[in-house]
């Protein structure tokens, strides 16, 4: 009797588990649909001819025989390698100066050094043209060298990848244990020895990780070489040329696959290194705070000056150029270049589209990442599902934007695909952007969830609260700061991205960053600069809003976060 | 004051396997209403797994659980009747003390006034009435622990589960909270299970102690039984200190301890050799030539209320551990290298198969 009356609620709770798993499976299938499926389309297309007949590796052979591969691949590797070297050394120096000295105004310097992350990668290229181009302000500095080519690409790439490296290295260096430094001091190690025996080894995983990140970013970037590369072929620009210029989709697919391979290798190598990283920082570690030392501060200032000047000069030049009436003949300041209705068919339309894309990606991306991370971390899920999800969530880190975008063309523009109505529309742009930038927010929330007590759900159950109640009353409020970061990340990247969406926009869904590209192509460099500045200003505004909300949260939640 | 009505809990043939590893092997236990039972054992002995099975947070591989007359074997945690306190407390950091305590009452959908009354009652009970509006991060470890306890007790559960509740606290607070938890438990009459690896905690708080090792129950008994009559060498060694001496069984059914022949304390053990066991405080040290076994002190350790000596006794293989009260120590002028006589106990010896 009592067995019978109990069985119904029992069943419901069992059902809850099954429902949660079902939800997780559905979300996994969605991820499968928007990531591996397009990649598979791309792969199969690279093995077929223009008519869709399977031809094996013939396309690859043709590309190899043309000699274009060796040239483009060589160029891409050289540029990416050189940029990585420059960025990692200068970013490490800057990170050291920011974490190991008491230089006044460190917060502001840090903010300024991170500014490039708010701009599309096209901005430095345009700005460099104004600085070092044919009519450039500082053309004489190049001593006859042309900025159009590897020089410009490396300079531009260094500009926009610098903050990515700096953030990783700042984290790596700020996780120092003061006790190690005290031990070194007590053992009478010189400051150089301390640097090589304590600072550097502790940061080595950060260095490796940052190097891989910068390498992949430069290797797969399309914006900088497109604008300032001149005739210097790179793999990423070659994809664009094959597809947009010559409409040879299968060759574009071939180059994309070749673009994917080194990125995938770098990604796997990075994962391998990360897995070997034992947590060197224990819970008992004492946070390091630098002691006052004038000489050290001076050294820090010297190290910070070159990147700071370079970044401010590039941004300043872009803003200035966008305000000048007619470079270099009429230097009167005006807002004429911002009158996009004169320059572009759709006027401010592409900018508004970008805002829409960024807003929608923010909403959809933040909710999806949160839901997935919650399901995978805080609810019981079968092990195999979790493994598959982990792989899918990190895969986007390894997929170049060009490759993803081209895969989307093949998959969603296929006549047999019931979803091909999405092609050229905003939905597909949102989906693609969301997938492209999925991994970093995912890792962000995973970390946030791991910091929550693993027994919250168990306590909740013992107090007869439902999972939803625990989620709304505890988990969500506790992860708000992380959610805020995730939202900003999605917004900024959706505003600035070019590489994936360049294949996917339609007449009604042109984007601001693509307008920059098109304006530059049409010789409207000042207009392009103006649009790039608009994008950057919007992102800066978003960042400001993010900081204000963060402050508000600290004030509201300060009491229970133990900061009041 | 709302009185809890503690319920009886029966565990019948509980097994738990993780792959090939057997975490729990045929656990039977009958816990009476209002009783406080400690699961005691080294880490990895299965005590926490057993607690989580009782809570429904883990599913047993086989076996039955009865709470009162109700079979709860297959019920999810939400439908069982228990409150739980974790080692980490797992207090919700974004909720104030009173909201934490009220959490379970709100899920039950009780009216506001009633919740308020119950929360105030519990706050008074744990002596934190003036801290009601604070957040967990603003409280000390001991205070957080008491809030976690109040939160678990708020819905008046029939069973209270405590998972190493005191091990994150420093010694002084721990001693105080032991008494406090015991007082509350007895006052409310709630059946309680406390998981711990701290024998002192188990001996001072429990009505009965369940000593576990490698997934099986070694012994169930009152603290005194566990200490005085350890059922196995493991229990004997795990609880307090113990001297073990292996001795061949004599033809006449007696055993030899040093120079003396003793009647076999228990006839149960088989085999040619037996292992005799006695506590350090049961050995007496006397001046030389008082008729005991010649002994020499090799090490002395000052432990406050008593001295612990490591003593070499003629004819016995391992060094013996002997506890000496300070007065006798003073009287004997105890020092390292001293030659004395040791009187080994002749009654109440424990005897195990060697």
TrEMBL record, chain B:
InterPro entries linked: AAA+_ATPase (IPR003593), ABC_SmlMolc_Importer (IPR050093), ABC_transporter-like_ATP-bd (IPR003439), ABC_transporter-like_CS (IPR017871), AminoethylPonate_ABC_PhnT2 (IPR017666), Mo/tungstate-bd_C_term_dom (IPR008995), P-loop_NTPase (IPR027417), Transp-assoc_OB_typ2 (IPR013611)
SUPFAM superfamilies: MOP-like (SSF50331), P-loop containing nucleoside triphosphate hydrolases (SSF52540)
Annotated keywords: ATP-binding, Cell inner membrane, Cell membrane, Membrane, Nucleotide-binding, Translocase, Transport
The ABC transporter domain, residue ranges: 9-239
Keyword field contains Ribosomal protein: no
Keyword Metal-binding: no
Superkingdom as given in the UniProt entry: Bacteria
Gene3D superfamilies xref list: 2.40.50.100, P-loop containing nucleotide triphosphate hydrolases
Entry's Gene Ontology molecular function annotations: ATP binding
Protein name: ABC transporter ATP-binding protein
Organism of provenance: Pseudomonas fluvialis
């Amino acid at each position: 009797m009592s067995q019978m009356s109990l069985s119904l609620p029992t069943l419901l709770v069992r059902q809850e588990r099954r429902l949660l798993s079902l939800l997780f499976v559905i979300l996994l299938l969605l991820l499968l649909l928007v990531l591996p499926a397009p990649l598979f389309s791309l792969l199969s297309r690279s093995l077929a001819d223009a008519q869709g007949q399977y031809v094996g590796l013939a396309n690859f052979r043709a590309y190899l025989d043309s000699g274009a591969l060796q040239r483009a691949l060589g160029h891409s590797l050289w540029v990416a390698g050189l940029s990585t070297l420059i960025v990692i050394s200068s970013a490490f120096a800057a990170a050291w100066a920011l974490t190991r000295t008491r230089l006044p105004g460190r917060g502001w310097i840090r903010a300024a050094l991170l500014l490039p992350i708010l701009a599309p990668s096209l901005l430095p290229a345009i700005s460099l043209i104004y600085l070092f181009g044919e009519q450039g302000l500082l053309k004489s500095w190049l001593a006859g060298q042309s900025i159009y080519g590897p020089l410009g690409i490396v300079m531009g790439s260094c500009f926009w990848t610098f903050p990515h490296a700096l953030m990783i290295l700042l984290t790596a260096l700020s996780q120092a244990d003061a006790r190690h430094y005290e031990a070194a001091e007590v053992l009478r190690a010189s400051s150089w020895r301390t640097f090589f025996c304590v600072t550097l080894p502790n940061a080595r995983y950060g260095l490796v990780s940052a190097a891989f990140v910068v390498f992949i970013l430069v290797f797969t970037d399309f914006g900088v070489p497109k604008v300032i590369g001149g005739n210097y072929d790179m793999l990423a620009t070659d994809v664009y040329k094959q597809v947009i210029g010559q409409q040879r989709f299968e060759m574009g697919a071939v180059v994309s696959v070749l673009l994917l391979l080194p990125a995938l290798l770098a990604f796997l190598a990075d994962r391998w290194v990360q897995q070997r990283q034992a947590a060197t920082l224990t819970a008992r570690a004492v946070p390091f705070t630098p002691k006052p030392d004038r000489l050290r501060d001076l050294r820090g200032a010297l190290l910070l000056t070159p990147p700071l000047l370079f970044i401010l000069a590039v941004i300043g030049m872009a803003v200035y150029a966008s305000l000048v009436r007619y470079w270099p003949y009429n230097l009167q300041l005006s807002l004429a270049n911002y009158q996009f209705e004169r320059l572009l068919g759709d006027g401010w339309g592409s900018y508004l589209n970008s805002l829409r894309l960024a807003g929608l990606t923010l909403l959809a991306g933040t909710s999806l990442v949160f839901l997935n991370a919650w399901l995978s971390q805080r609810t019981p899920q079968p092990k195999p599902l979790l493994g598959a999800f982990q792989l899918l969530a990190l895969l986007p880190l390894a997929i170049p934007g060009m490759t993803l975008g081209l895969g989307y063309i093949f998959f969603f523009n296929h006549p047999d695909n019931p979803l091909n109505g999405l092609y050229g529309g905003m939905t597909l742009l949102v989906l693609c952007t969301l997938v492209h930038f999925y991994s970093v927010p995912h890792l962000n929330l995973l970390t946030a969830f791991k910091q929550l007590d693993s027994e919250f759900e168990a306590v909740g159950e013992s107090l007869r609260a439902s999972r939803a109640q625990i989620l709304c009353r505890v988990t969500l409020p506790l992860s708000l700061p992380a959610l805020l970061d995730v939202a900003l990340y999605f917004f900024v990247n959706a505003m600035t991205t070019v590489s994936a969406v360049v294949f996917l926009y339609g007449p009604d869904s042109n984007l601001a960053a693509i307008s920059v590209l098109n304006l530059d192509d049409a010789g409207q460099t000042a207009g392009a600069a103006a649009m790039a500045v608009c994008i950057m200003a919007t992102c800066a505004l978003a960042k400001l809003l993010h900081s204000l909300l963060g402050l508000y949260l600290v004030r509201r939640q300060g009491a229970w976060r133990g900061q009041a | 004051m709302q009185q809890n009505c503690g319920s009886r809990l029966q565990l019948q043939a509980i097994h738990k396997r993780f792959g090939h590893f057997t975490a729990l092997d045929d656990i039977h236990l009958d816990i009476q209403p209002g009783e406080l039972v400690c699961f005691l054992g080294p880490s990895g002995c299965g005590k926490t797994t057993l607690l989580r099975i009782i809570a429904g947070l883990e599913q047993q591989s086989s076996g039955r659980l009865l709470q009162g007359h109700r079979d709860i074997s297959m019920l999810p945690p939400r439908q069982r009747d228990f409150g739980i306190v974790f080692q980490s407390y797992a207090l919700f950091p974004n909720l104030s003390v009173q909201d934490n305590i009220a959490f379970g009452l709100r899920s039950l959908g009780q009216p506001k006034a009633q919740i308020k009354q119950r929360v105030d009652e519990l706050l008074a009970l744990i002596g934190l009435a003036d801290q009601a509006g604070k957040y967990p991060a603003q409280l000390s470890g001991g205070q957080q622990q008491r809030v976690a306890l109040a939160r678990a007790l708020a819905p008046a559960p029939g069973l209270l589960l405590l998972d190493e509740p005191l091990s994150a606290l420093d010694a002084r607070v721990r001693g105080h909270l032991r008494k406090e938890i015991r007082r509350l438990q007895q006052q409310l009459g709630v059946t309680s299970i406390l998981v711990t690896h701290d024998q002192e905690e188990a001996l001072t708080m429990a009505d009965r102690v369940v000593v576990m090792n490698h997934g099986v129950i070694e012994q169930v008994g009152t603290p005194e039984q566990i200490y005085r009559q350890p059922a196995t060498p493991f229990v004997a060694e795990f609880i307090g200190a113990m001297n073990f001496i292996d001795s061949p069984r004599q033809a006449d059914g007696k055993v030899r301890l040093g120079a003396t022949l003793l009647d076999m304390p228990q006839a149960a053990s088989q085999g040619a050799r037996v292992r005799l066991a006695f506590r350090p405080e049961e050995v007496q040290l006397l001046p030389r030539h008082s008729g005991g076994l010649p002994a020499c002190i090799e090490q002395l350790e000052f432990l406050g209320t008593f001295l612990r000596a490591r003593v070499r006794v003629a004819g016995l293989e391992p060094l013996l551990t002997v506890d000496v009260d300070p007065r006798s120590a003073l009287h004997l002028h105890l020092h390292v290298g001293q030659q004395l006589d040791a009187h080994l106990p002749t009654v109440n010896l424990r005897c195990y198969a060697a």
